[in-house]
Design brief:
With about 375 residues, the chain is α+β, with helices and mostly antiparallel strands. The chain has eleven helices and ten strands. The strands form three sheets. It has a four-stranded mixed β-sheet, covered by helices on one side. It has a four-stranded antiparallel β-sheet with strand order 2-3-7-6, covered by helices on one side. α9 runs antiparallel to α11.
Length: about 375
């Protein structure tokens, strides 16, 4: 889809596509019903080197660029289950990249090889019942006690929350606001940690949990970076997260459009194919124009990110446009399917209901607009 990729990128795409066709698609509806991706998939991905594409070579990763992550998402979106790439990205991008960026050498050596191999599953624990997009308002507190931190509080909407072996967790170690936030890695075996799976209306194959911390003792060596410096690390990680969601949304739109086009040629109404009616030709023409625009903006943001340029503004724009657009495309394409768009066995139905979460994860559309407004000088007192 995107121009300018190397032969190595295309070889990687073919390898991922082959795996998806052989070992994922036949099982994806079972995973949707189970509410989780099996550990065996992570292990298979680890054996093939797919979980460490952007992680350090010295710990078993490949140290490659974000285009490889983009390809991984696109091909796993072809499963027809948004929950599958969400679970993989929560591990390979969200839960581990912060460890690679700010963990001690000892901690990296302990966790990254196992994460890259798929023998340990990662999660990122930031959102709380009263602090979603407002990360600076988190309440989960970690108090230093000798060689440990003692954690009390709760998290919610945590992807891989019940299947994860460790959770990269935002905690409050200082005073109020962003200056009191730290990042701690919490092993799932920590005494006092309780996990409960949430039942969602979409992304069913992605395990999502609420977490409860009651006097959880975590060694100080599990701190990422400096104490009270976690907010900046989280914000840095959000750029890649928003690009991940943007790629998911653009691929989701393209899959819905392709399904609608195929259905429009096959479905007979009033003695004619649906796409014999000009109204449907025009509605799908509008949809594909929106998809191309969203992909172009998303790929531009990824290109900037890969080149190491400041990318917060473009990533926020891409995430805003792609995730708002996916709702419109879902409505247009879903309408073509009539009642079938409400049946779980229908691909369109699953993609349709999965579109509802896109404008919320990795920062809501309202937060994206605030970031964009500030970055282009619309907020009084801030210069572009």
């Amino acid at each position: 889809m995107q121009a300018g990729l190397s032969d190595e990128h295309n070889i990687f795409r073919n390898a991922v596509r082959d795996l998806v066709e052989r070992e994922v698609k036949p099982h994806v509806l079972d995973w949707e019903r189970a509410g989780e991706v099996p550990r065996s998939l992570f292990e298979t991905l680890g054996e093939l080197g797919f979980l460490g594409v952007r992680l350090p070579v010295e710990h078993g990763g490949s140290g490659l660029d974000f285009w490889y992550t983009t390809i991984l998402i696109q091909e796993f979106m072809r499963t027809g289950s948004v929950g599958v790439p969400v679970a993989i990205m929560a591990h390979a991008e969200f839960g581990t990249q912060l460890i690679a960026a700010a963990g001690s050498d000892e901690l990296k050596a302990e966790l990254l090889p196992a994460a890259i191999a798929g023998t340990k599953i990662a999660a990122l624990g930031v959102s709380e019942p009263n602090a979603g997009s407002d990360v600076a308002a988190i309440r989960t507190r970690a108090v230093r006690d000798g060689a440990d931190y003692v954690i009390n509080g709760s998290k919610t909407f945590i992807t891989n929350g019940t299947i994860g072996d460790f959770i990269t967790t935002a905690v409050r170690t200082g005073g109020p606001g962003s200056g009191g936030v730290s990042l701690l890695v919490v092993p799932a075996t920590t005494k006092g940690l309780a996990r409960n799976r949430l039942k969602k209306i979409g992304t069913h194959a992605s395990d999502t949990a609420e977490l409860y911390f009651e006097d959880c003792r975590v060694p100080v060596r599990y701190l990422l970076g400096e104490e009270n410096a976690g907010f900046g690390l989280i914000m840095q990680g959000f750029t890649a997260e928003r690009l991940v969601i943007s790629v998911i949304a653009t691929m989701q739109m393209r899959m819905m459009w392709e399904a609608a086009r195929e259905h429009g040629h096959d479905r007979q109404v009033f003695g004619r194919q649906l796409l014999d009616f000009q109204v449907w030709q025009h509605r799908l023409a509008d949809a594909i124009t929106t998809i191309e625009a969203a992909e172009t903006l998303t790929f531009r943001a990824i290109g900037s990110f890969v080149r190491g340029e400041p990318s917060d503004q473009l990533a926020s724009m891409a995430k805003l446009f792609a995730t708002e657009s996916v709702l419109d495309v879902a409505r247009e394409c879903g309408q073509m399917f009539g009642g079938m768009s409400h049946l779980e066995e229908c691909l369109m139905a699953r993609l349709y209901r999965d579109s509802l979460a896109m404008t919320i994860g990795a920062g809501s559309s309202e937060i994206m607009r605030e970031i964009i407004a500030r970055s282009v000088g619309l907020v009084p007192g801030m210069v572009k």
